[in-house]
Amino acid sequence: MQKLIFTNEVGQALAGLVGELNPAGVFFLADSNTRPIAESLNAFGAKVIEIPAGDENKNLQTLASVWEVLSTSGATRRSLLVNVGGGMVTDLGGFAAASFKRGIRFINVATTLLGAVDAAVGGKTGVNFLHFKNEIGAFAPADAVIISTRYFSTLPAEELRSGFAEMLKHGLISSGETYRRLLAFDIADADLEALLPLLEENVKVKEHIVEIDPREQGIRKALNLGHTAGHAFESLAMERRRPIPHGFAVAHGLLVEMVLSNLLLGFPSAELHAVAALLREAYAMEPVRCGDYDALIELMRHDKKNSSRGVINFTLLNRPGDPVIDSTADEDTIRAALDIYRELLGQ
Amino acid sequence: MQKLIFTNEVGQALAGLVGELNPAGVFFLADSNTRPIAESLNAFGAKVIEIPAGDENKNLQTLASVWEVLSTSGATRRSLLVNVGGGMVTDLGGFAAASFKRGIRFINVATTLLGAVDAAVGGKTGVNFLHFKNEIGAFAPADAVIISTRYFSTLPAEELRSGFAEMLKHGLISSGETYRRLLAFDIADADLEALLPLLEENVKVKEHIVEIDPREQGIRKALNLGHTAGHAFESLAMERRRPIPHGFAVAHGLLVEMVLSNLLLGFPSAELHAVAALLREAYAMEPVRCGDYDALIELMRHDKKNSSRGVINFTLLNRPGDPVIDSTADEDTIRAALDIYRELLGQ
Fold first, then answer.
1. Which of A27, A331, A345, B38 has a beta carbon 3.0–4.6 Å from B30's, enabling a disulfide?
2. CATH number of B3-154
3. Does the complex come out with an ipTM higher than 0.85?
4. Partner B contacted by A61 (CB < 8 A)
5. CB B138 to CB A139 under 8 A?
6. How far apart, in whole angstroms, are the C-alpha atoms of residue B240 and residue B235?
7. A77 to B306: CB separation less than 8 angstroms, yes or no
């Protein structure tokens, strides 16, 4: 059972958890940005393993470097790894722990909004491989996740926006009210105090879904809303060596999939305009061109969520709060949706 | 639940399983030795992925090459991987499946005695890393395991002996009768028909233990008998680029740990002589030298079964059929045991 702790007293919470888990040794994993946070939390004389920041480093080579430090520093099966960072660190660190000596325990300390709302909770771990996102990994829940807003004030605006896109997704799949509360929040000029209760409500939406369906055989697929198209945007940007923040890709993926929902299930078109306005205000991204459609569709085909070759799976929506998992769309419909998406953004 | 099928009608059994599992696509994994067997079983038009044979290739590079073929050949989460081979293929293939897109289903077809009795059953998967055996991996049971003796007749004698060492281990931890029946069997001139009932009894010993304790928190540790010292022998041989068969290392590891059991728990010394005689007859290995002790003990210290740094864990025995898990021995006792082990072998 994954323990979820909301607190700004992070050091105290961590010391309590380590006391309970009673590991034979503690290791910290941080990236070049979060290393100071890890050092500030290291009341255990633990080794701090540093990896380079950035999703482009969430790969097999970085993973192997973490395994190597664990191996050569005497980590045992009873050691504990504390991942301090955003989604890149908790995804990679979670899989490093899940696969080292066939699995050691780990704790995630989420330092970004995106990490808190998305990656740190729910047990999806992994690294990118070739051009595919999270192609290699495991379902491995952290023993505990600590979520605090104290590290968010130093985040770049785009990190906050990135996390907010995942919050919007949770709103869209859980209830119209939650979704509308989020639309009313001004993420372009965020009040972190006001964000905290929204965040706690939001993470609990995810936690509840993951509890019911940990291995994504049913309702958990709703969490993939926005991610089939979103991953394609993200992968294309990565291939072109102009990476974009995950949450920006998801925000745009949400709009594409809301358009698909409109075309296939009659999702209300007024909502498309509301979300398009938000994207224009806070999620500026390089425009999609007609010449990108083939590459985007090919990337969607490779999405690990597809259940058979050649079919592209989506989570769609009847209306806010009413997701439809295991939906599919054919290529022509996806092209039509990309056209409408571009019109909505005035591209 | 792992399905365990004993049959010589392997193709028929496999077709039945594939029918039940109804995968979106089938892939075979084989090494250069077992590729013809995989081809003979491939009634599915499946891609056969070939990796180089030998434990020295059970590494991250080979693993990544398997992931790459799966990725670029359109494997999805609903694909099935059929691993055809000995322990190297089922360990590596099992982890490849367990980690590809966070886990796809897999079947093991054991083609060696060692694989049948040890690696194919029980869900321990993984690859070697740096100089450490199975340092990276997962607990991931196959959806089904097919065990047949039909492929054993073409095995080199040392493969059969290697598997027999694991059978002897199962005898030692399960019952004095089973152990004695095995000692009475002539593995140096093996009758495969007579081996079959012994094998089925033996695999079921392991299956039963794994069922009770899949993640090795208690009684499953008994299966590690012989493996703390055995892995050290095996790793040392690998470091020196003169690899020895896993089962030979285990056979010698069993004797070292029986000696430790004698020193620490009064395990009967007559059994030491019986097993030493078997080792001299069928498990010839390069003699251990005094100068090797430090390296062997250092390797034992790195064993992933150790629960904390600096302590070396063993499974020991009060007598045949009565294992004692979570035992430890200090360095002096291990040195004394190595001395006695060498005397028993006339080194």
1. B38
2. 3.40.50.1970
3. no
4. no
5. no
6. 9
7. yes
